[in-house]
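Blackboard transcription, Thursday session:
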Amino acid sequence: MSYIIKTEGLCHRYSIGTPFERVAIENINFEAARGEFIGIIGHTGSGKSTFIQHLNGLLKPTEGKVYYEGTDIWKDKATVRDIRFKVGLVFQYPEYQLFEETVYKDIAFGPKNMKLPEEEIDRRVREAAMFVGLGDELLDRSPFELSGGQKRRVAIAGVIAMRPDVLILDEPGAGLDPRGRESIIDNIKRYHRATGATVIMVTHSMEEIANTVERIVVFNKGHIEMSGTPREIFSRGDELSEMGLTVPQVTSIAKRLYELGLPVDPSAYTIEQLKTDLIRLRGGRRHA
Amino acid sequence: MLKDITLGQYFPGNTLLHRLDPRTKLVLTLVYIVALFVAKNYISYAVMLAFLITSVLVSKVKPRALFKGLKPIMVIIIITAILNLFYTDGNVLVRFWVFKITDAGIKSAVFMALRIAMLIMGTFLLTYTTSPIDLTDGLEKLLGPLKKIKIPVHELAMMMSIALRFIPTLIEETDKIMSAQKARGADFETGNIFERARAMLPLLVPLFVSAFRRADELAVAMESRCYHGGEGRTKMKQLKMKRGDYVGLTTGALLLTCVITLASFGL
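(Written on the board underneath:)
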């Protein structure tokens, strides 16, 4: 399998030399394959946000290396800037970074920095706006008069417009209402399917990633604690709750039903899975 | 770059200096500054330096942190030193073109640089060892008598504590927005002065927007807790002078007397 991005022995310490010095992440060995959809979960302060800022060279590792397609991204200054266009990072609450007069100009900020020709910028802005579900009529509005959810879409489009090979999103649904959250996650899924880009999504909501991602990486106290498919991760519910994380609600229900003696899959993590099991069960009983 | 700004930053600790009443520390700093400007010659400077070093040792603040605070004003120190170097009359040592360097020039350049450096380090020691809340509390108490002549001391202190409180927040915010724009390929480091000024726009606009939003939220939060200025407001933490404070103030008085006496003998 070819890895697009990889870290080796990554460590980061903040405020070195002051009384506030602390280790944020330690010895992180992480790999992401081309086209993979990865979810990163972890408690607040588990180091997940620090970690993702290393993947596009915003933070320089205190120790360890970050490789993009086999090259050390810190090899020289030009490489780091180049990497920022290939690894797109959407921060938490990205709407606070909007600054342009119009939505169009704000989305075009990234592609413009890439020094692309005007027609290409235009194509990318419209494509990115389409991916996040922003209508053409919004492009000429000021980003400051939009609603919170729309602002978030503009900010995400601003990163998508660079057409990054790796798209990283830090809590894309934070602070939105359930419907807005779901719709943004759907947009990201669509982007993943349409472009085949690697997507890494950071969140602390299990529901959000359970039926979205292919692999889950669990961060705890600056380490990678587990990594595996959602099924593998959610079957270790007890360990997760020790870390202050929960399994999706549907998994806890399935587990409890299983403990009560019903023959259902105890690590079902989508409502669909449990529903199939339960319907099969009901049908089975009737015939018994 | 941003991490170099340490103004108003507090390093928590539990040393003698940390425990002093903020009023004592404010008065001591004032005395220290006055003494620094009274000091004229080697011996009085040695006394001042000894006082500063002892205070730093007692406070357990790392000297590196103090020197780091000097970095942003290094230019001012250097310019002052150079001006003093060339514009002081005395016995000429070196002469070239229109410039001349005199022995008195070297002396005053060194003293000037030392004076500014010590001034900054002394005041930094105050903010390093006193939390912003204590500091404004102390200031409000010290300036209390000015209320009689209708100076809004409480409001000024409140404004100062809000400003101090928001310096780290805004720095953090700046850092965050900078990172976010860098992730979109913004370049803050290269280009000529106009390009750089333009490059600041994606940073400044969101920063102002968020500062106004924060100000708004803070105002609502204060109002909903019935804040209505200083009138009739009581304090949960009462400031009390303890034995250490009297010792500290006596030391300050001694320092000032000592330096004034030394200066009057031209030492």
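Lecturer's comment: Chain A is about 40% helix and 25% strand.
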